[in-house]
Queue: 3 jobs
Job 1
Amino acid sequence: MTRPPLTFSYFPDVPSFTLTSDDIADGEVLSDAQVASSMGYGGLNRSPHLAWSGFPAETKSFAVTVHDPDAPTGSGFWHWVVVNIPANVHELPGDAGSGDATLLPAGVLEIRNDAGFHGYMGAAPPPGDEPHRYVHTVHALDVERLDVDGNATAAVVGFNLRFHTIARAQLVPIFGS
């Protein structure tokens, strides 16, 4: 079976920068901390720590997205979408996506994930599927704020990211049963 392309592979090429984490690594299996606490999984449903550097000097804000392109939906599954992160913020602590926004900088907006709530939704691929890829992306943007509100969908945010991303950094861990 051919796997879908990675998230944002159809977007224009932009420079990359460095994304690191104390919790996840490229190609490595997610720990229980980043696995869902629902849908038959007993994980902790904690968003990972993320830190970034080397982005363009003209960056005016950041957005963070977590997407599973392998979800059997026809459009993947958006696990976390965070926008309007100020340009002077270069790190999010673990569990920043708890849904109450207390660990996020002031003014940051969490968009509903595909499970229907604001916050991070841990990995939860269907039992028996091959391991899914979880594309954690930090987008450096040329605007201070995206013109979206809390009712926006991930698709609307993605549309805006298409036109405002000036650089992108990714980590792609995996998880499967």
Note: The chain has a mean pLDDT of 95.
Job 2
Amino acid sequence: MTSFENPIAIRHFQSICDSCQDLVTRFHSPSDLKLYSDGYLQALRNCNALELKDQEKLERLIERWILDSSSFINPDSEENKGFFK
């Protein structure tokens, strides 16, 4: 199962994805995205914002999403050339 039932987890997933998309448009590397997402996820862990199962699922999905180059396709259907050279 790769979907969330918790609307708060969905909002956090979308927030991380939106921020990473913004970072990609400013030519940040995959390691920069990983640092950003790790910090975000650690903050969620520290404040116990999500149940443990939702937190773990979010961490797995974000890691896969960042590593998947198809996550960073421009609206004109072209891969972001500045990101994956």
Note: The first helix runs from residue 7 to 25.
Job 3
Amino acid sequence: MGLIVRGTAIAALGLVLAGCSSIDNHRGYINDEVLIAAIQPGLDNQQSVRGTLGQPTMVSQFGEPVWYYISSRTEQTPFRQPKIRQHSVLSIRFDENGNVASTNRTGMEQVARISPDGDETPTLGRERGFLEDLFGNIGSVGAGVPGSGGGPGV
């Protein structure tokens, strides 16, 4: 009997510990070092880059054409927000003819950790309390437009 209880307790402990493991997730472009190294400035163009690396994650909207291939690896423990463990941005700049001008890779050094302020956003106007919000329209509803004759059906 004691062996069954012990076995059940060990199995339950194993399930609890398995539930506390973190979840690894990959987001964005999957980096392939061989394919990235194959992109050569002056030799490749937009068509060959798209054929080699696929569709970019983002494309610049203004200025010189730049394609971005963004990759992130996150880890999330239960009941917590995901945390970025690895981050990579490959940017490929093109000249006016559509040929590769340069490539650049950045990583975690460019990740900015932003902590939003938890306070309320200041707005113009006067502060109203709960009761003013609740009863503020009494008397103004159904007043109608001036000169309309007093309401519907009149």
Note: The chain has four helices and five strands.
